[in-house]
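Re: [ENG-882] Designed sequences occasionally contain unexpected residues at chain ends

Forwarding the minimal case from QA. Structure tokens:
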């Protein structure tokens, strides 16, 4: 059995050296790819957590009216206000007609 020392020589053919380099580069590429994918997934999880928090805030505050109103809601509110004013005016007209009718009798 031969002993290994500082003066021992290793002989490798060029194919083996190229194969080792290609293997190391492949492993490094896989490692960097996995690292990038993990970082992207962590970022996606953070974004999803933010979306869930915003959704929860919206779910709670929207029904209370703490987040404003939609343009359609504003239009509807204006229509309701107009109708309330119109009904109040018509009630006044009816009262006046009742008073006038009572005076004629």
């Amino acid at each position: 059995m031969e002993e290994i020392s500082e003066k021992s020589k290793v002989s490798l053919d060029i194919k083996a050296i190229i194969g080792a380099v290609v293997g190391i580069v492949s492993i490094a590429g896989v490692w960097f790819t996995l690292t990038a994918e993990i970082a992207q997934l962590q970022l996606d999880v953070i974004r999803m957590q933010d979306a869930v928090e915003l959704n929860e805030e919206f779910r709670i505050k929207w029904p209370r009216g703490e987040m404003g109103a939609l343009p359609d809601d504003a239009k509807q509110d204006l229509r309701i206000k107009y109708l309330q004013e119109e009904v109040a005016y018509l009630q006044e007209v009816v009262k006046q007609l009742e008073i006038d009718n009572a005076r004629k009798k």
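QA comment: On inspection the terminal residues look reasonable. The chain has a mean pLDDT of 89. Proposing we downgrade this to a documentation issue.
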